[in-house]
Design a protein that fits this description.
By secondary structure, this protein is of the alpha/beta class. The chain is built from 16 helices and 15 strands.
């Protein structure tokens, strides 16, 4: 663990890590709060569609006004200040910037920005897990070909889970399951931006809604974000999605080895080597004590009797048989921890997780009965939620990825709970995100054109 020393060395020699950030939403703002006080980092530029809002976010996390008044990118480099702009391309194309943080949350924009940054020879930290779930394996391949790093975002749960998996394998354990906790009830799949407050008000004390995007928050409630994040985990680790997706079993942080093991041994999983998300709520609506709603976990297995004895001796939270054990992280700090990815990408040239395969996909699934000619509104909206499923099932079924289920028109009626297909919607074949996704399917899966 020497990243802080490496950053300090860069600072002492007048060569801080030079960063360009695109997007000043919640995640991006959390990083801004820490970047200012991290020795060895210089946020050269912050690009957002609404620069005035971006400045508000900066001042809201205690950036001095004089620090964000750079009139140009050249002045930012010369003075050590930060340039706020709506021109993301200017950050991407400036050869002095070393790493781009993509934090827009828009999958099409994320793919576009990541590819442009890679072509410009820059490392990319992809906060935009939506874009990663849609086409991350091919973006990562492009980065490798260019000799730059394409990294998942440390502090977000997928990167932390990928680290759990890597830890387990490095120690010689078999990974049975990995995932996170969330708040889940089966009815949440129908939640929309209008009704999400009924759920949020039960467990979050949100007094000021002005900084809350209900559509974004709803994607965490309706199951979509869990599907997206577990897809990113599968594609970064080689774990698999379960055939029927996530089942969200209730479990306390101490019960994961008992619950998240194969059914043949008394658990809920169809097999070992998969992702699962556990619920902080029982199906009757009561809270699970000591739940893992903000945390991450891994369940491991060893065929060594001695290792199994150690599971108990060292309080590795084994199941009743002693065959399985678990390790968990109780929480995650999202953008507050993102500096680990930035430093690792630039100083070690090593990602904090990156896609290596196409094992999992997120498929648009109808929240309600949809009618021909309706316009889909994408993640967290009124029309669809994202269901995780094996990539091979998605390809064989011709299913529509959630990341492309936005601003497209239905050609047919779709029943509630049904997975949408490419053939159900009008897709512009010249759209860059569409073409890139199809290219990824050919390279990592198999051709499956309409």
């Amino acid at each position: 663990m020497n990243l802080s020393r490496m950053l300090a060395e860069r600072a002492s020699t007048g060569r801080p890590v030079r960063i360009g950030q695109i997007g000043a939403g919640k995640f991006g703002t959390m990083f801004l709060s820490q970047c200012r006080v991290t020795r060895g980092m210089h946020l050269v530029g912050l690009a957002d569609l609404l620069p005035a809002r971006a400045r508000e976010r900066l001042t809201g996390v205690q950036w001095p006004e004089e620090q964000i008044d750079a009139a140009s990118i050249d002045e930012a480099f010369r003075t050590g200040k930060t340039w706020v702009t709506d021109d993301a391309r200017a950050l991407i194309e400036d050869p002095r910037i070393e790493v781009i943080i993509e934090a827009t949350g828009d999958p099409a924009a994320g793919i576009r920005h990541a590819l442009a940054a890679i072509d410009a020879g820059k490392h990319v930290v992809m906060v935009n897990v939506e874009g990663d779930a849609l086409a991350g394996p091919l973006i990562a391949k492009r980065a490798t070909m260019k000799g730059v790093v394409y990294s998942m975002a440390w502090g977000d749960q997928p990167a932390l889970i990928a680290e759990h998996v890597d830890w387990a394998r490095t120690c010689g354990f078999k990974v049975v399951a990995a995932g996170k906790g969330t708040r889940y009830m089966p009815t949440y799949h129908q939640s929309n931006p209008d009704t999400v407050w009924e759920i949020l008000n039960k467990y979050l004390n949100i007094t000021d809604r002005s900084h809350i995007n209900p559509k974004m928050f709803n994607s965490f409630i309706d199951g979509t974000k869990s599907g997206i994040e577990m897809t990113a985990v599968c594609n970064a680790t080689g774990l698999e999605a379960q055939t029927n997706g996530l089942s969200f079993p209730p479990a306390s942080r101490f019960e994961h080895a008992e619950v998240c093991k194969p059914r043949e041994h008394g658990g809920v999983l169809e097999k070992a080597g998969v992702t699962e998300v556990t619920s902080s709520v029982y199906r009757d609506g009561t809270d699970v004590p000591h739940h893992l709603a903000m945390g991450t976990y891994v369940v491991i297995e060893s065929d060594s009797a001695y290792a199994q004895q150690c599971f108990a001796e060292y309080n590795m939270l084994p199941d009743k048989t002693g065959r399985y054990a678990s390790l968990y992280r109780p929480t995650h700090m999202i953008g507050l921890e993102l500096g680990v990815s930035v430093a690792s990408a630039v100083l070690r040239r090593e990602p904090t997780g990156t896609p290596v395969c196409f094992n999992s996909d997120v498929v648009a699934t109808a929240k309600k009965a949809l009618r021909k000619s309706e316009i889909l509104d994408g993640e967290g909206g009124f029309c669809v939620w994202g269901k995780q499923m094996p990539a091979r099932v998605s390809l064989d079924g011709g299913y529509l990825p959630l990341g492309l289920a936005h601003n497209v028109r239905l050609k047919v009626d779709v029943a509630e709970g049904q997975q949408l297909k490419w053939s159900d919607v009008e897709i512009d074949p010249t759209d860059d995100a569409y073409r890139f996704r199809r290219e990824m399917e050919v390279m990592f899966g198999r051709p499956n054109t309409p």
